[in-house]
Amino acid sequence: MFRRSRVVLVCAWLSACGGAAREAQAPKPAAARPAASPAPTVNAPPTALAGYWVPAAQPFTFSGRASLGKLARGPLFQAMLPTLKPSLPERVAPCLNALVDHAEELLIRGAEEHRYAVVSFDAAGLAAVRKGCVGSVVPTSSPVTIRGAEEAYAGGNDVLAIVPPNVVLFGRKSEVEAALTPGHATEPLPAHFTLKGDELVALRVDVPEPKVGVDASLASSPQQFSLEARASLPGEEMAQRIEQGFGFFRGQAKERVKEAGGDTTVQALLDGITLDRKGSQLHATLALRGTVEQQAHAIGQLAAISIVATEKYILSAKAAEAKSVLALIVKAHQQSFRDAETATPKKPRKLVSLPSVPASVPRGEAYQTTAEEWKSWGAIRFTLTQPQRFQYEVVAAKDGKSAQVIARGDLDGDGELSERRLSIELDPKTYQLTAKGLDETKPLE
Question: Which residues make beta-bridge pairs with 319?
Fold first, then answer.
């Protein structure tokens, strides 16, 4: 979301061969050297914006730059705009128009809970922002005074400041005030803020725990749209999980395209998405060649099916809890039999029914049970301390030699339940438990 240039040197001449003497031959002229491939163009951020890049008030995990003018007014985004606008709330449309028509550059950094952004506009940009965004997207109920800003508004812990002649700042009030203080300290802009070739967006993410680093870029031209990302992960196991998740996502996306009639352009786009893994390093690319109209069509279709595929992936990840907990419940039963063997006096060893916990199936979100709710499971000393998305129950046969361990869920919150029943049997001689099969009903509900 990198290109290499090569220089090929070709040189040829005729030399005398060994053996009998021959008449000297005039050397043939050397073949002309082909011109070297031009180096990629370099697009450094405007120096005027560097003055607003003040030391961070809080640690940040990501930083990025977007060349908004080239991106928003480029042929690809313009081709997608007619389908994008109808999906937005009516009050947002004038603000979007102001950004599309007048925004030039975006510099941003932050973490999960805070952001600091610098946005530059053309000469008419601030007037357009004031007319299209202030009062609709930007609430005016909490104005604040910041020296150097034409006007500013507070929202939560952040402020938005309009700074003549062409800048809007957003972030913690302390950072915005620092950026507008005469003679203030600045920090060098990150190296990845310099875009290369057709790049329009560059992003760097550094997560300290677990330690993950990602460099991503987006490039666009009339001939090709591409995304590229390189990730460094703390271990191979995490990289493998992401690789597996990617395979699931692409498989779901292809199924979705097939169900919709098999759009060949989108199929080509999905086939153009690659993920290469070397140990704990990942390299992902998406390259789409074709006309701007073909690019816009494929990206729009991919966005639609990505939502469905991503939702299914998230639901599958959430559903994995049920199988894991069912296995833990069986383990707890087995351990209870071992404890009964060594107890004095010995306790009877058989499977027992255990009531539903929680009493109602969680709907669409995780539920945090209490120790009190698990007291009824004291026979096997089982409890969950983490929030759970499923209700669990054990229904044992009267003779205690078999049981069904049940998980019920409503992951999407629509009132329709999923259910998993793990059948287990107890060997009365060895007191070993054996799983006889798992029945699943609507597993992604």
Answer: none
Burial class (CB in 10 A: 0-12, 13-18, 19+), 431: middle
Domain-located, residue 294: no
The tokens for 336 are: 């209870």
Provide the pLDDT confidence category of residue 9 given band limits of 50, 70 and 90.
Answer: very low
Buried b (16+ CB within 10 A) or exposed e, 330-363: bebbbebbeeeeeeeeeeebbbeebebbbeebbe
Question: Is residue 212 one of the residues assigned to a domain?
Answer: no
Q: Are 418 and 364 in contact (CB under 8 A)?
A: no
Residue pLDDT, tens place only, 198-216: 999 999 999 887 888 999 9
Q: How many domains does the chain have?
A: 1
Contact 332, 392 (CB under 8 A): no
Question: 413: burial class by Cβ within 10 Å (0-12, 13-18, 19+)?
Answer: exposed
Report angle CA 100, 70, 167 to the nearest 5 degrees.
60
Q: How many CB atoms lie within 10 A of CB 152?
A: 23
Residue 377's domain comprises: 319-441
- For the chain, the helix, strand and coil percentages under 3-state DSSP, each to the nearest 5: 35, 30, 40
Angle at 159 between CA 158 and CA 163, to 5 degrees: 150
Residue 378 falls inside a structural domain: yes
Retrieve residue 83's tokens. 């389908």
Is 392 within 8 Å of 329 (Cβ atoms)?
A: yes
Q: Which residues contact 404 (CB under 8 A, 6 or more apart)?
A: 394, 395, 421, 422, 423, 424
Tokens of residue 396, six digits = 């044992």
In a domain, 333, yes or no: yes
Q: pLDDT tens digits for 249-292?
A: 777 777 776 776 666 666 767 777 888 999 999 999 988 777 77
